[in-house]
Design a protein that fits this description.
- This protein has 284 residues and is α/β, with parallel strands linked by helices.
- It has a single domain, classed as P-loop containing nucleotide triphosphate hydrolases (Rossmann fold), CATH 3.40.50.300.
- Helix content is 39%, strand content 12%.
- It is built from 13 helices and seven strands.
- Strand 2 and strand 3 form a beta hairpin.
- It is globular, with a radius of gyration of 18 Å.
- The two termini are 19 Å apart.
- Bound molecules: adenosine-5'-diphosphate and magnesium ion.
- Adenosine-5'-diphosphate binds next to helix 1 and helix 11.
Length: 284
Amino acid sequence: MNQKGGVGKTTTTINLAAALARAGHPTLVIDLDPQAHATLGLGIDGKATRSIYDLIHDPADAFGAACEVSAGLWAIASHTDLAATETELASAVDRLERLKRVIAQFAGKVEYVLIDCPPSLGLLTLNALAAADEVLIPMQAHFLALQGVGKLLETVNLLATGSPPINPKLRVAGVVLCMHDAGSTHTREVVADLDAFFEGARGSTAAWSEAVVFRPAIRRNIKLAESPSFGKTIFEYAPTASGADDYRALAEAFTARHAAPARAEVPVVVTRMPVEPSLGGAPA
Ligand code: ADP
Ligand code: MG
């Protein structure tokens, strides 16, 4: 998630999911954005199947609504109607539980569920946060891009630690740097700030106390921008492109983290957060 648009959420969702599936981890993509870009990018005809809009209203047989895109890669389509959900569910008492009920039906069937969130912190995104174990934040390493991240982290913390907490197990996994230009000094400074911010939270009660800036960053690669127009992931469209290498390596870093030993072995670093102002003063 990231409430900013155009940061690489959809590109990361579909290509990380494809990389996970290819590495032998059955993965489900849920397109939770009414713009339906992940649906398009995966080459699914959203009109031909029950969409996430239908399932949010009636979760019966969610598994039957998932399309098998390629071996081990499943997807639930979005639809423009999804935009109406925010008002349709506004007064429903279980409005934050709807997506969780859909996902529960995939237990034992897939290993990962990746949810492509809309660019807002509205009810759809809150449904994703209520259902998720971890939050991945795609973003660019630019000073202004940091501005919204504080608000985003506060929202995650509210769901994880509010009274009562809506999702006490929710953690921030970290930041995925998208459209990355490692050559610029500004970029390096922003990445160093992010690293220091997360290091400064180690051992705290914040939902991002174990978060990292994932390596490698995803380099800018035009093949990643072209592939959705063919309804293909980077692995089908341009398997030798840098975008394919980067998402394959990201999937490895992502799964290695889940296989890693307990975090208690990580030294606790308590420092003053140097990036506090640029992250909007989010509590750590
Ligand atoms: P979001 O879902 O956050 O709105 P997208 O994933 O749709 O962002 O990315 C925004 C635009 O940037 C899209 O046109 C996408 O194809 C392009 N894009 C994303 N990542 C890269 C990249 N690493 N290199 C080049 N273009 C990219
Ligand atoms: Mg998107």
